[in-house]
């Protein structure tokens, strides 16, 4: 029985593993350059969102993934506010083939981080006395696929 239990443990060491170790805000900023004058104007916002991800290998099988959301909101020609959050996570990822690892770091992990980043943005914006942004969900799988296509097209060119 002991040999069988040891054999199962050895097999489990080769199975793919994924676990979230820690979520944290790496950087957070809010600026309302036209306050308080902006509050006296009719509110007709134009929202611009910039989204970026990056990842790096830590010790062993640990990886840090950082999702950056930068939002600039203009009311007419004037900037009402600029808000940015870098939502990060540390993930344990083991025994994945290179393609699966790339997809996990480029799409799956940002998918986990996005709701936390969205909530942090909304909280800051509301504290600045503006309406919550309520950003729509993002399809990171589609963004990842588009990035792969761009990289392949650039490789062929």
Automatic annotation (TrEMBL):
Biological processes per GO annotation: protein folding; protein tetramerization; protein transport
GO CC, alphabetical: cytoplasm
A GO MF label: unfolded protein binding
UniProt keywords, alphabetically: Chaperone, Cytoplasm, Protein transport, Translocation, Transport
InterPro entries registered for this protein in UniProt: SecB, SecB-like_sf
Keyword Protein transport: yes
Main location group: cytoplasm
Compartment(s): Cytoplasm
Keyword Chaperone belongs to the record: yes
Assembly mode: Homotetramer, a dimer of dimers. One homotetramer interacts with 1 SecA dimer.
Record's function text: One of the proteins required for the normal export of preproteins out of the cell cytoplasm. It is a molecular chaperone that binds to a subset of precursor proteins, maintaining them in a translocation-competent state. It also specifically binds to its receptor SecA.
Similarity comment: Belongs to the SecB family.
Name of the protein this chain belongs to: Protein-export protein SecB
Record organism: Pseudomonas mangiferae
Name of the gene encoding the protein in the UniProt record: secB
């Amino acid at each position: 029985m002991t040999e069988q239990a040891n054999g199962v443990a050895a097999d489990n060491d080769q199975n793919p593993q994924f676990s979230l170790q820690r979520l944290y805000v790496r950087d957070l900023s809010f600026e309302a350059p036209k306050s308080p004058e902006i509050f006296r104007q009719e509110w007709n916002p134009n929202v611009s969102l910039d989204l970026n991800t990056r990842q790096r290998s830590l010790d062993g099988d640990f990886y840090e993934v950082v999702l950056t959301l930068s939002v600039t909101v203009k009311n007419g020609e004037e900037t009402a506010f600029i808000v940015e959050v870098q939502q990060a996570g540390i993930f344990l990822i083991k025994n994945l083939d290179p393609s699966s690892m790339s997809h996990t770091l480029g799409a799956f992990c940002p998918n986990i981080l996005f709701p936390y980043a969205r909530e942090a943005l909304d909280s800051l914006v509301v504290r600045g006395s503006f309406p919550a942004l309520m950003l729509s969900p993002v399809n990171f799988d589609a963004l990842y696929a588009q990035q792969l296509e761009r990289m392949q097209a650039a490789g062929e060119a």
